[in-house]
Amino acid sequence: MNISSKMVFPTVVIMLFTLVNTTYAGDVQILAADFYNNGGQTWSVNITLKHDDTGWKHFADNWRIVDNKGNILGDRVLMHPHVSEQPFTRGLGNVKIPENIKTVYIEAHDKVHGWTEKKLQIDLDQATDGHLTVTAIQ
Predict the structure, then answer these.
(1) pTM of the predicted model as reported, rounded to 2 decimal places
(2) DSSP code of 27?
């Protein structure tokens, strides 16, 4: 057995372990959204996410509010992993949503899988006294 064949097995094992560890966490789940109207077109938004963060290389790092054309209305960057804090909620204030927009969507992102395909739809016309809570169906 030559040196190159001795190195192949450990290299393959390390690659497989990295692949399994990286894909284990999967996509970010958007669990809930709370919208509070601060008057006019200004909203405060809290989003609850769940993601099996594994550390700095694989964690949920962003969520955003978009309209039906994909225009970004609000963007919340998450600066660190939440390995031992799941699920977690983070907020964003002063979100301007034009009055003619009645439906928005929440998207979430992680460092490995990118933006989730499964968005949470929010119908702002359902707000009561300036407040709306939407819980995702899992």
Answers:
(1) 0.78
(2) S
Tokens standing for 85?
């804090």
Q: Helix, strand, or coil here: 30?
A: strand
pLDDT in tens, the chain (138 residues): 555 555 544 443 344 344 444 444 578 889 999 999 999 999 999 999 987 766 677 777 889 999 999 999 999 998 776 656 778 898 999 999 999 999 999 999 887 888 888 999 999 999 999 999 999 876
Q: Under DSSP, is residue 74 helix (H, G, I), strand (E, B) or coil?
A: strand
* Helix, strand, coil fractions of the chain, as percent rounded to 5: 20, 45, 35
3-state secondary structure of 89: strand
CATH number for 25-135 (one of 1.10.3720.10, 2.60.40.2150, 2.60.40.730, 1.20.58.220): it is 2.60.40.730
**At CA 86, angle to CA 84 and CA 91, rounded to 5?**
115
